[in-house]
Structure formats: structure tokens, C-alpha cells
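Task: encode each sequence below as C-alpha cells.

Item 1
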Amino acid sequence: MKVEPALAAIRLAVRECLTDLPSGELVLAAVSGGADSLALAAALAHEAPRLELRAGAVTVDHGLQDGSPERAADVAATCADLGLDPVVVESVAVGHAGGPEGAAREARYAALNDVATRTGAVAVLLGHTLDDQAETVLLSLARGSGARSLSGMPPRRERFRRPLLAIRRVTTNEACQAVDLVPWADPHNSDPAFARARVRQQVLPAMVDALGDGIPEALARTAALLRDDADALDEWAKTVTDATDVGALSELPSAVRKRVIRNAAFAAGVSAGALTASHVHDIERLITHWHGQGAVSLPGGLVADRSYDRLSFR
């Protein structure tokens, strides 16, 4: 029987994402109920048995909207109907740090990690698409981020995998229609109070109108190229074994030197989320533009200081 092109594309993407896993292992799909994650779940249910893998699902109830427990239960029932087992509903308490979007994301990933650990899953599949990647790049541009942030979401990081990063959102909707799945439209995705929703509803469509239909692909391609560059610079920075030698640090390219500074600050106890580009800039000036200035104050009560030809964190 002929398979719809959209469905075939998503199944192929999922299959290629799983081929390195040993038979018998459990893979979970993170399913919100939207078209992207439902199409992902259906593809996983189809492909996992063919690769001799077990397939399950997890849906996270953030508790941020009325009726969210009932929606989570509906999503879980749909996953079970697809043949996924186990299916876990995980409720979380969303904090406030990092804003509403950041706090929800942090709670969600913590929950997904916890469920994967409890169930013994070797991988958790996420339904982010090429459109999500393009939006992420634009949000990073607006924040004035560096190459690492502009490189967007990686296809893999630890147990998380994103098989749909080359798939357009319209394709996931078509795939759901092909197998009679009815996605849930999260109102947060169109709420202009959220930055990503504004990018999705206003900014990216305006760019497509002005510059052409290929803008989302171009942004995703840029992210992939920058990821390669950022990976190479990160590896270079790891080869620097002495982060206190001002003479050696001064000879490095700034992009590498800043990475060494960040790594040293993290090793000294500075929180990754609290260290800003301004902190790194001020520390770098202790190396490249030193005229006897005092120590640089850092989050957590730490300081970076220079004494003669040595940099220290205390």
C-alpha cells in the first residue's frame, strides 16, 4: 500500500535516528499532543518494532492551563492506541527562574530525564522541526548571542534526539492527517505574550514575505554551519591545560580565549546560567588590556583577578 509522502518522510527520519541503538532497548517519544510530537510518536510506533526496539511515550503536564490533566490523559490514551508502551504522564511544578518559557522548558527536560532514568530508556525523541530551529536562531539573534547559541538545537545531546530537524511543520500536520490523528493546538503557541509565539506568528512570516520561501531552510542551514564551527572552537579550548597563564592566553584567538575563560569560571564554581558575555569580556581585558585594574566580580561571590602574569579565580 502506498504511504503518503509526509508520513514516509517522518518514518524515514525516525528510522535513521534509531539505527545505532542495540535491539531490545527502550526509546521514548516526548509527546505534547501537537502535530509535531504526534507525528513523531506514530512514526516511532511504526519503526521501532522493525528495528527490534521497544517504544514508549511520555507526556509532561505543566499544570499551567485549566484542564491540563485531562489533556495529558487524552495524549497518553492516544499514545497507547498507537501501541506505545510504557506511556507515562509526568506532572511538574513550573518555577519562575528564566521567565515563563525558560522555567517550563527546564521543568520539562528534568521530567523527561527522570522518566527516562526510571524506565531505563536509552533515548528520548523530541519533535522539534526545521521551523522550530529557524525560530530558535532568530530568538538567539535578538539576544545578541554567540555562535553556540546561534547554532540552534543539536540533533543529539546526551539521551535526547531530534529526528525531525530537517522536516517542515507542514509535513507533520500532513502526516497526522494521513493516520487520522487530531493534534491539540496549544494556545501558548499563538499567545503574543511569548517571544517564540511572536517570532512564529509575525517575524518569520514577514521574513518569508520579504525574502522568499527558503528563509526557514536558510536559517536552519546557518545553524548547522555555526554548530560545526562552535564544536571545533570548543575542542580547541579543551586543549588549553593552563587557564592561568596570561602569556599563553594572550596568544589565543579571542573566540578560543573566551571559551577557556568560561570553562575556568565554571570550574571555579560560577553558575553557567549566571555568567554573562559582559563578565567574560571584563575577564578577557585582564589578559589583553591590563593596566593594573582590580578584580572582576562574578556571580556567586567569586572574583577573577590578575597578579603579574597569572589569572586566578577565588
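Item 2
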Amino acid sequence: MRTGVEVQAAHWDSSRWVLSTSAGEHSADVLLTACGQLSIPTLPPLPGLQSFAGPAFHTARWRHDVPLMGKRVAMIGTGCSAIQAGPAIQPLVGQLDIYQRSPGWTFPRMDFAYSERTQRLLERFPVLQRLDRAGNFAFHELGALAMTTDRPWLRKTFRALARHQINGAIKDPDLRVKVTPGDEIGCKRVMLTDDWYPTLVQPNVELVVDRIERVLASGVRTVDGRERPADVLVLATGFATHGFVAPMEITGTGGRSLAEEWAGVPRAYLGLTVPGFPNLFLIYGPNTNGGTGSVIFTIESGVRHVISALQEMDRRRARRIEVRRRALEQFDRELRSALHQTVWHTGCTNWYVDENGNDPNQWPWLWSTCRRRTARIDGDAYELMA
């Protein structure tokens, strides 16, 4: 393990991968990229953003040296970053203005500590642990079923639970309207929170839904002409979501880069392998994200696929494994057809789907399907060579 080292590029050198890093070169027989999907912050294209005179930072680059006690804070965005940061800083700041472009559906976290009595029971009866986990998994599978198939009644049930969370915390009818989405639940990322709506009703918080016209040196001006002063600007504006291996540059056989292979639309067989890039496996690669469930489960499934591939290489004494292009094309056709039946293509604006209608992020089936399809490699899908 090498910490504090950035991998800048990797290229296939006939029989191995050669990595260019901030600490020199490193070679490997097999390369796994585990770069995540939400790690590179994006900044909004707001006029005057650079003119703000006070501290301005993205939530992923939090300025812990900036004191917030009693300050007027403008937070731009109401996605997953905002619903975590907003409630955390609200008790500290003098005024918190939250600028919302569009609301998203939320769901209770359902996160609680097991009592000592429950812990003793789980320890004494391990089967209860398995049942508890199975129940958790079944709930997320039900959510995946609602998002990936045309079952309006199932989405209606989840939407009713989400509305109940809003109505239970917010009594002001105008504020309820502001925070209640008009799109299908799940079309945008569903956010888990217990304290977002209670935060919005605090006396030092204002939810602003008017579009931002310009960031000023002293605050933010909206299209209605109102200027709200701010001492600190917090950008809860999300991440670049379609890079997968960025900013690393990967070059496969024939000098062709992964960026050229994808040509703006990342594609990978089962989200893991790409033709022309032997011995390369993308962990949490294209179309391995979902609207419910745990990404850890997805990653575990991908790693099992890698282990199966390595075992098959050992069994056949192969030094190289590469997915066949026809296997990728067949999978991609199946994937795109399934994606258009999902909730993510019902008309909202989300970070899953790009401006051309391509969705390189989402897995359009159940998570049990992901585990089953990635459990072992398909001999017809891969070519192994000595």
C-alpha cells in the first residue's frame, strides 16, 4: 500500500500495466481502478462567483479554518451534500440562506443503535443477524423494483412515506410547496435525512427558490432583484459523475485511450471490463450505481468477478484476459433497453443522465441480479491468452 501517491496515467505495455505516479513508475500484471463516482467537485457557472469577497468553498473542500459562529452563510444547493452540511452548521451561524434550484425527495435514515438486549439476542442467535440483514436487503430490493420497473402503485407507496416526512416537520403550507418535488420519487437521487426539514423551519434559516442572478462581493442577488448579504459562501453543488477514472489517463492496446474508446459515453461489460484494455477491471465503473441499496454490495460483487477471472487465468495458465467486443455490445443493448423503462428517464433533471439522454451511471435491474451476473466470468464473454 502506497499512501499519498497519485496515479496520473496507466498504459498497457504488451504484457503488463505500467503506472505513472507522483512517486515514479510502478508495474502490475492486473490493474483495478477503484476511483469512485463522486470525488471531483463541480462548481456552478454562476456570474460573479469569483468576485465574492469572503471565504467561498465547496462542501468537499471544507474550510475548517473559517469560523462560522454568528456569520451570515449562503449555501447553494439542496442535494445530498446540503442536507448533511446545512443541519450541522445551522445552530452555529447567525443566518443561513439556502438557495434551491429544485427539491428532491427524502426518506428517513432509519439509522439507530441496537439496544443492549437486542445485541445479546443477536449474539446468542446468529440466525437473527441473518434475518435482520435479509430484511434490510429485501427493503432495498423493493426500492430497486419500484425504480427499475413500471409499477406506479409501488412508487406511490414510497412517495406517500416521503410526503409524510415533509408534512410531519413542516406546517407552513408555502414552505411545504417549496420542498415538495413534482417529479417521480427516485428520478433524482433519494436523500436520507432526519433533520433536513426541521432545519428549514428554524428562525435563522431561509429557503430561497428564486433563481440566482449573480454572486456579488457582499452576497447573492436573485432574479427578483433582492440582494441577501453573506459573509461565507458554501457550494453544495455536487460532483463530476461520468469520469469514473478521472483524472487518470488510461491507454490500452494500440495506444487507444479509455477516453477515446468511450467517446463521451462510458460503457463496460457488467460495468467492469472494456475491450482493448486487457487485465483491467473497473470497480464501481459505468452503470453500477443504483437508486437504492449499498454501493459496498456492488463493489463486493465486482471484486468477486475479478477473483473469478484471476482463478480462471490461473487454471488456464493465461497471462492475459480481455472481454470480447461482441459481449460488450450485446450487454450494452440489453442495458440501454432496460434503462429507458426506469424512473431515471421519466423527465426530471438528475446527475445520472447527461444532456444527450445517455445514462452511464445506473444499474437498471435488481441488486440480486447484479450479484448473480457477476458471480463468475462467462467463458464466451472473455478471451484468455498465454
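Check on item 2: The chain is about 30% helix and 20% strand. Residues 7-37+241-385 form a domain with the FAD/NAD(P)-binding domain fold (CATH 3.50.50.60).
End of task.
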